[in-house]
């Protein structure tokens, strides 16, 4: 058969499109032409595929091979098309079954020795293939565990092009190939991906633990302000531990983003929410993602369904902080480049930590602040108003006192497990109340809906203090809504049906705890 | 005669036998002019066919067809025109073919034939 076609996947951000790979064999002088908007790495497939085929023991015919990747207008990059190109060529030459390759999605890079090398982004690519209605994928052996994470797909892991050809009915001399192992890349986030320590380790900071609990239960963003050594980083790193397990589709999305980031291939699906803590020298591209051809997700996208922790928030360039406003509002990041727009999910929970001033001592008992007032004001002003406005829980974390330490020693703090149990319960209450709406946590409810159609304004005496604060200009309308949402979360945590005066009062404290 | 020239002649002889077995009528062999040489000129029905023959004893230095570069092909076209101008025979359609002869020292030769290359 002179024309054969098979399928592969072109990834753009997290979304993939199935690409048809057609090969045509014509009785012409030997040549290998790839058309359909390939980039440089893909254009080199020409030489890789021919050499790999010879060394694998299933050479391509010495004729003119034309490979077309369609839709031709879609930009394609990388080496993941090698396998599809090679099998399409072999089928065009009549060496293997054209029928067998037609409904299989092929992914993988070829080495010159004919072995298949693992590629990045297998998980999102296989997901895209399944969504497009394909149920069989052929991937490099080192990627097969990752591909199997996708439900409802049959995965064929192959070590070499010869294995692939034999699977599709080719008749060749048998040869054994050692599968290329997964690259042994050190995981740059390994240290923060470890279990984050127990919440019980936090001693003598009950207010902060309660705030953390509320943040976890309602999905609220958190701002922690306090002197160095108060335990802000410790608190923030406990937050992922008390968040509930991820749903199956969320876990798959988190794993897909990991897969795209060039981390080591994934062997199992983690149900734990991710925790990303970029350093304060991070650029805007590192935060949201970037790259000119292959667009990779940044820290904010990788923190999707988990926690994005910005320690020393005022040290971040303000432009970097402000790129977070779009994902905070829409839950997704769109990265515009000359040839494409990639979009990544970014529904993370933001935790900001900051010192009160450059020297860190302002407002602490017994320590003297050496900063001029102007420097202090400028320091916190780096976190822009619009960003701070989106943060529901804002709390001052004081240094622990000797007395506090003694009390804490007698009365051990809440363990992560207990806390997570309460969070799961509170989230279930909120989810029941929000049934039939697109929202699942209190933080997601829009204010006007909550007060209007949702009928979630507690009314009466409960909000008396809050109403007065609004009247006196102490809170804005947006602030009012946010306090109400936190009050609902506190009520959920206490198992109350409706926020009471106490809940609203505590919510007001969690919002206005900062003497900014 | 050098080894390569001898091999070339042997390949051309095998190519002629192959073409004749396919019912083509060989008009001329090793036709030379100022521009170069045409290995075989043959008639296949209404077509006048100009054949370039490449012979190798093994595939170690690449497939014989790989030695036919675009430059070589362009010269073949010029040669074909030169032959047409020099001949009295009527020419209706012309075609350029390539024949690869893989002739190992002690094994039967393998012949591949590409019709109408461009």
UniProtKB/TrEMBL annotation, chain A:
Superkingdom of this protein's organism: Bacteria
Keywords: ATP-binding, Nucleotide-binding
Stated family: Belongs to the Mg-chelatase subunits D/I family. ComM subfamily.
Domain AAA+ ATPase: start-end pairs: 218-401
InterPro entries: AAA+_ATPase, CHLI-like, Mg_chelat-rel, Mg_chelat-rel_C, Mg_chelatse_chII-like_cat_dom, P-loop_NTPase, Ribosomal_Su5_D2-typ_SF, Ribsml_uS5_D2-typ_fold_subgr
Listed SMART domains: AAA
KW Repeat (keyword) present: no
Protein name: ATP-binding protein
GO molecular function, one term: ATP binding
UniProtKB/TrEMBL annotation, chain B:
Molecular function GO labels: nucleic acid binding
A Pfam family recorded for this sequence: UPF0102
Highest taxon, organism lineage: Bacteria
Gene3D superfamilies, A to Z: 3.40.1350.10
Leader peptide range in chain numbering: none
Residue ranges that the Swiss-Prot or TrEMBL entry lists as coiled coil: none
Similarity comment: family membership: Belongs to the UPF0102 family.
NCBIfam families for the chain: PRK12497.1-3 (NF009150), PRK12497.3-3 (NF009154)
PANTHER family cross-referenced by the UniProt entry: UPF0102 PROTEIN YRAN
Protein name as catalogued: UPF0102 protein ESP57_03305
Source organism per UniProt: Agromyces fucosus
């Amino acid at each position: 058969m002179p024309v054969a076609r098979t399928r592969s996947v072109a990834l753009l951000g997290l979304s993939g499109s199935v690409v048809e790979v057609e090969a045509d064999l014509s009785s012409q002088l030997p040549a290998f032409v790839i058309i359909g908007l390939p980039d440089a790495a893909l254009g080199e497939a020409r030489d890789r595929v021919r050499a790999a085929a010879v060394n694998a023991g299933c050479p391509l015919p010495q004729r003119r091979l034309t490979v077309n990747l369609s839709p031709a207008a879609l930009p394609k990059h990388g080496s993941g098309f090698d396998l599809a190109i090679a099998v399409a060529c072999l089928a065009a030459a009549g060496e293997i079954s054209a029928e067998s390759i037609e409904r299989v999605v092929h992914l993988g890079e070829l080495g010159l020795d004919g072995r298949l090398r693992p590629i990045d982004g297998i998980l999102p690519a296989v997901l895209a293939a399944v969504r497009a209605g394909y149920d069989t994928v052929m991937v490099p052996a080192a990627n097969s565990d990752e591909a199997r994470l996708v439900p409802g797909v049959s995965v064929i892991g192959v070590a070499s092009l010869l294995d692939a050809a034999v699977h599709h009915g080719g008749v060749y001399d048998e040869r054994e190939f050692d599968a290329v192992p997964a690259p042994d890349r050190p995981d740059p986030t390994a240290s923060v991906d470890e279990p984050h320590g127990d919440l019980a380790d936090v001693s003598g900071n009950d207010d902060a633990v309660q705030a953390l609990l509320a943040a976890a239960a309602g999905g609220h963003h958190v701002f922690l302000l306090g002197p160095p050594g108060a335990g802000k980083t410790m608190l923030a790193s406990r937050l992922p531990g008390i968040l509930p397990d991820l749903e199956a589709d969320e876990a798959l999305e988190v794993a897909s983003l990991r897969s795209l980031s060039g981390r080591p291939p994934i062997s199992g699906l983690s149900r734990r929410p991710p925790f990303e803590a970029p350093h304060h020298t991070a650029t805007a591209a590192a935060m949201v993602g970037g790259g000119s051809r292959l667009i990779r997700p940044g820290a904010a996208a990788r923190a999707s369904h988990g926690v994005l922790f910005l320690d020393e928030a005022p040290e971040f360039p303000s432009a970097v902080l402000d790129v977070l406003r779009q994902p905070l509002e829409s839950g997704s990041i769109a990265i515009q480049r000359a040839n494409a727009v990639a979009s990544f999910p970014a529904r993370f929970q933001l935790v900001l930590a900051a010192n009160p001033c450059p020297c860190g001592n302002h407002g602490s008992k017994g320590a003297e602040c050496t900063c001029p007032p102007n420097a202090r004001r400028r320091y916190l002003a780096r976190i822009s108003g619009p960003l701070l406005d989106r943060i529901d829980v804002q709390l001052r974390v004081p240094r622990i006192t000797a007395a506090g330490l003694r009390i804490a020693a007698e009365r051990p703090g809440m363990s992560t497990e207990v806390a997570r149990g309460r969070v799961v319960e509170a989230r279930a209450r909120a989810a029941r109340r929000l049934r039939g709406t697109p929202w699942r946590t209190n933080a997601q409810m829009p204010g006007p809906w909550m007060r209007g159609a949702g009928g979630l304004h507690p009314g009466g005496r409960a909000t008396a203090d809050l109403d007065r604060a609004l009247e006196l200009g102490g809170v804005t309308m947006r602030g009012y809504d946010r306090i109400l949402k936190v009050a609902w979360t506190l009520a959920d945590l206490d198992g109350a049906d409706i926020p009471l005066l106490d809940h609203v009062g505590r919510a007001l404290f969690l919002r206005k705890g900062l003497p900014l | 005669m050098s080894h390569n020239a001898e091999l070339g002649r042997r390949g051309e002889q095998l190519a002629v036998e192959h073409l004749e077995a396919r019912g083509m009528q060989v008009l001329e062999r090793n036709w030379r002019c100022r521009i170069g040489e045409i290995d075989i000129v043959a008639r296949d029905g209404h077509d006048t066919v100009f054949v370039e023959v490449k012979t190798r004893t093994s595939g170690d230095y690449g497939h014989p067809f790989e030695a036919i570069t675009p430059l070589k092909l362009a010269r073949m076209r010029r040669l074909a025109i030169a032959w047409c101008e020099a001949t009295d025979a009527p020419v209706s359609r012309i075609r350029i073919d390539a024949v690869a002869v893989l002739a190992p020292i002690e094994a039967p030769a393998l012949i591949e034939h590409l019709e109408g290359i461009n």
